[in-house]
Amino acid sequence: MSVESAFYTYLSGVSAVSSLVGDRIYPGVAPAGADLPMITQQRISQRRYPNFAASGGMVRTRQQLDVYAATQGAVDTIVEALRDALDGWRHATMSTEQVFSVQIENVRFGYESPSDGSDIGVHSAGVDFVLMHRESVPTF
After folding, report:
1. pTM for the model
2. Which of 20, 22, 47, 53 is deepest in the core (most CB within 10 A)?
């Protein structure tokens, strides 16, 4: 299981988050017409830390969670639940992945104007989490 899958599985099981978005946590892209509020998840980048001889097995992965809701207040509540559930989380195992730390690195807020002639747009936040984790080391 990849660290992205493990992160998704862990996040889906956090009751403080699922009480706000239900099962609307989507890896990658949300399906067309998905209800609000919702969260999408994607891997943004990875950096590996080699040692002098080969791969060191340590990886820094940036996961972006995008939060979408009808109001800014709902977005703020979900972002706070994500922070409470994940920021500073250390020394844990997400499934088979050994994750040493999870930290919020950045939060960006946005608003998308309605495209259907209504007065209701979509509020959003992009929350970047940095995961330090171990991966298997290739053998030659």
Report:
1. 0.86
2. 20
